[in-house]
Amino acid sequence: MTIEILTVLPELLTSPFEHSIMKRAQEKGLLEIKLHSLRDWAINKHGQVDDYQYGGGAGMVMMCEPLANAIDALEKESKFDEIIFMTPDGNRFDQKQANGLSLKNRILIICGHYKGIDQRIRDLYVTREISIGDYVLSGGELAAAVVVDAIGRIIPGVLNDETSALTDSFQDNLLAPPVYSRPAEFRGLPVPPILLTGDPKKVEEWRQEQAFLRTKQRRPDLLDGE
Ligand code: 6GU
Asked: Fewer CB in 10 Å around end: N or C, the chain?
């Protein structure tokens, strides 16, 4: 799978993908991440990609031409399966969307800045608009990093048994149960005895129950179904 990211701040997006599972996904050849600087398609030699908004008001808007020319150039090779715009007024990102996106071949993510991008780019090119939550970030880059990480780790073959995504929170609409490692007692707090029994069936039952209790307590909304 190839994920391309169009941004005015490509430097912001190098480190997040150079470590751990994202690094492994790329080394295994399962994920390719290509960063593109929108300024390569600036309208003048000053690198301009934004302009004042019609109708007045504070804040600049990312212009049509640089974005359209960039997308057209990137699509010369082949079309994108999805062109995603990162924006706080998009659809709230969740595991279900991540699962769906992890099956695509080639995705473009556009990071917004300032007051956003000209609406006509959204009308003409964008197939999906994603927000990562109800708060405002200064740009779409960190949100894009979140989305790429969530997609990248569940691409088939990226995780092994030990890091399996099947037991993640949200994968079955339940939060993950508590986990423990050595020592068996820490500052007077013991590990739940059932985990020491070596009985996989009992352990699994306990984990299911704990996952349910935790979800009921913290996120009852998840138990109401889709
Ligand atoms: Cl995708 N972008 C920005 N700028 N802020 C956000 C966001 C995205 N998602 C939540 N807040």
From this structure: C
